[in-house]
Amino acid sequence: MGASVGIGGLIVGTSLMVVFALAITTLDVRMDSSLDALDSANDPLPSFTIDDATIWEGAVITITIVDGGAGYTDGTLSTIVAGGFTADFTVDGLGGINTVTITSHGNYSSPPPTIQVDSPPPGVTVANLQSTLGTVIHTNVTNNGPVTLPQEEVWFFVDGSTASSMDTLVAGTTTNWYSGETVNIVWRGFGSSTFTTMAVSSHGFNLARALA
Description:
Layout: H1 2-42, E1 48-67, E2 75-79, E3 86-91, E4 97-104, E5 115-117, E6 128-143, E7 149-150, E8 155-158, E9 161-165, H2 166-169, E10 176-177, E11 182-187, E12 197-202, E13 205-210
Antiparallel strand pairs: 1-6, 2-3, 2-5, 3-4, 6-11, 7-10, 8-9, 8-12, 12-13
């Protein structure tokens, strides 16, 4: 009889210890969750501005070298009509234009403008360069919040689609968008599409602006 009572008491005691241990574990989990929530609530929130957003639907997006000509030295290109296009070019061993790097896309109406070589040397064999027009978006965005944002976590949209991360739009080696930093973006790759609105989103902060 006494042994049975002793075993019963041991079982009850063990059960109470298990219940107590489970209760302590539950309290620990809840406390950890509460601390995580407090830490998250104390994290500063991102903030940024879209300083300007301009769409150029007549930008020169490509230059095709139909005939590189001969007798040139490395130099620059422009257009016969005003519009803002500029480019640098290099030449091969015969002075033929073999690479073109656009430095400013400009903005034109159809048809595409005629490309000219600036200050060509005398006696050159004239090159034939053809331009193609398309859409380019120019924007400046400023990180005016206290948070440094990884560029890969800052997303750009036009008309709610065509998402691109900042790191794919910005040339350079930095991977962060620092507090107080203004970034200039020349957004290409739209073909001849047209849009009305640009938006930026990161970590729950969203901002949109009409394209002018």
